[in-house]
């Protein structure tokens, strides 16, 4: 199975960590937006309202509805990560882990 690398703009945000990451799945809490590019060059940016609790099942259902309705018109789908949140959480967890080892 080929390895799936993060997009270059994500790697550029923190190359010493993101450069070696292989992606299998991304937790919703780290998803910033979904950009849908249509064949007619229109783009929809689907953001996430952090004040609402949305489950992975709900996201999946909404995306499936979108893809079913616009399947023939969609050119590509791009999932954008909240790289600052990922970076913050990794640093926080690493700091906690290192303190606990002492």
State the gist of this model:
This protein is an alpha+beta fold and 102 residues long.
Biggest sheet: strands side by side, in what order? Answer: 2-1-3
**Count of helical regions:** 4
Spatial gap, N to C terminus: 39 Å
Q: Percent of residues in helical segments? A: 40-55%
Low-confidence stretches: none
Shape annotation: elongated
Radius of gyration: 16 Å
Structural class: alpha+beta
Order of helices and strands: HHEEHEH
Overall mean confidence score, pLDDT: 85
- Percentage of residues in DSSP E strands: 15-25%
Total of domains: 1
What kind of sheet is the major sheet?
Answer: 3 strands, antiparallel
- Count of DSSP strands: 3
Question: Care to describe what's here?
Answer:
43% of the residues lie in helices and 21% in strands. It has 102 residues and is an alpha+beta fold. Strands 2-1-3 form a three-stranded antiparallel beta sheet, with no helix packed on it. It is elongated, with a radius of gyration of 16 Å. The model has no long low-confidence stretch (mean pLDDT 85).
């Amino acid at each position: 199975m080929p390895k799936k690398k993060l997009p270059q703009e994500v790697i550029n945000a923190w190359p010493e960590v993101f450069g070696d990451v292989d992606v299998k799945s991304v937790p919703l809490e780290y998803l910033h937006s979904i950009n849908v590019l249509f064949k007619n060059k229109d783009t929809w940016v689907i953001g996430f309202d952090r004040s609402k609790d949305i489950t992975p099942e709900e996201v999946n259902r909404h995306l499936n509805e979108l893809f079913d309705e616009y399947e023939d018109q969609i050119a590509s789908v791009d999932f954008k990560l909240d790289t600052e949140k990922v970076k913050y959480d990794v640093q926080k967890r690493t700091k906690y882990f290192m303190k606990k080892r002492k």
